[in-house]
């Protein structure tokens, strides 16, 4: 491969604690090799919608620009979870929507700015786009980002630990108010179609019921668990439900659908709360943590893994790699093909130790 002189980095999908740490590591590691580094604004928008940005869609990333950002949440170059350039929605004058492939414009943008390689930071959707661009001739290395921890071929993604820490802290607080009022407290957490956040938070936060997408639940069994606790003298109960959880034979609750972006889940917590109150007669309340899980400073673990991932991505390019994703394989970071990493979603295995631990502790999954 030709010698690298200039690279770009972009962040796509939902934001996650640790994004800025990845950016900092990439920039410093690249500059130490004599490379220039640029941040693409808002996913790929900076390349095929440059007119939207005063700087033309690319941010020059210098040591000064990334100084002191490791502990900051969000991303200094922006992100987006809509406007996939491979399937971009165009609304015609008649109001009809047609889907077009704008990847050629993205590729022209890379050539125009003489960018030799891309480090793409994102989840399965963002890295699937990056994989397709790699097939079109772009040198690409992916970095796994999602608080949902649902990316395959890596033990963990950055942002997940921070989301868990915050969610568990919330459960700790809610236990006291639930006990004071003798209520059932239902806490809805993010995670989309995987139950990693709900499962780990529920166990760590001493929940009595955990509802995850991988195990369709029978609300009658949830109600029976709460009644059982009441008979044993327990004055309150805690239920953690993943946004993608669903009843046996039912459908996921969708809050909104928009053209050009994935469906937005949400509302299952409110439904479960209403059903529990009707079936048990116990006063019940719902708390939706939502985007609170995405914000704030990354934990020590997420800061470290983000810095490791960013530096490893630059090393991969320096060693001539392309079409790979950096992945945590303790105690090291290794490289896996992007094609494999984006092939399927990593869901919670029903026979994993964490599930078995929850069952041994008497936690109900509604099955």
Account of the protein in words:
- The protein is α/β, with parallel strands linked by helices and 367 residues long.
- The protein folds into two domains: 197 residues, Rossmann fold, CATH 3.40.50; 134 residues, Phosphofructokinase domain (Rossmann fold).
- 35% of the residues lie in helices and 19% in strands.
- It contains eleven helices and 15 strands.
- The strands form four sheets. Strands 3-2-1-6-7-14-15 form a seven-stranded mixed β-sheet, sandwiched between helices.
- The radius of gyration is 22 Å and the shape is elongated.
Unreliable segments of 5+ consecutive residues: none
Shape: elongated
CATH fold name of the largest domain: Rossmann fold
Helix content: 25-40%
**CATH architectural label of the largest domain:** 3-Layer(aba) Sandwich
In sequence order, what are the helices and strands, one letter per element? EHEHEEEHEHEHEHEHEEEHEHEEHH
Please give the alpha-carbon distance between the first and last residues.
54 Å
